[in-house]
Write a structure and sequence with these properties.
Blueprint lengths: L1 H17 L2 E7 L3 H14 L3 E10 L6 E3 L6 E7 L5 H7 L8
């Protein structure tokens, strides 16, 4: 198990260091965690990066953007179901994958 885990960690760090552009997606974070994440990622990435944070809110029906004033981080409040295709389709609209 440890060998597999170390392989995955090394592969992840290689992608982070060598990608021209990368999107990190996180489910749930507060402001301080977002600041720390953005700071840490700016130290280990060579290319550009963005962070998308989705914070689930009980009873919320749609998606609402929250401005935390972080230059590389977008924060949205979303309905509580992490498996909602409607939510993911909305927040990932326009995102494309490249190798």
């Amino acid at each position: 198990f440890k060998k597999t885990l170390n392989y995955r960690i090394d592969r992840f760090l290689d992608k982070v260091k060598n990608s021209q552009s990368i999107l990190f997606v996180r489910w749930v974070a507060n402001y301080q965690e977002a600041v720390e994440l953005e700071s840490t990622l700016s130290q280990i990435t060579r290319g550009s990066f963005k962070v998308l944070i989705l914070n689930p809110v009980e009873g919320l029906q749609g998606v609402s953007e929250i401005n935390w004033g972080l230059s590389r981080t977008c924060v949205v409040n979303v309905p509580i179901d992490p498996n909602s295709n409607v939510t993911w389709d909305y927040v990932l609209n326009g995102v494309t994958l490249t190798n």
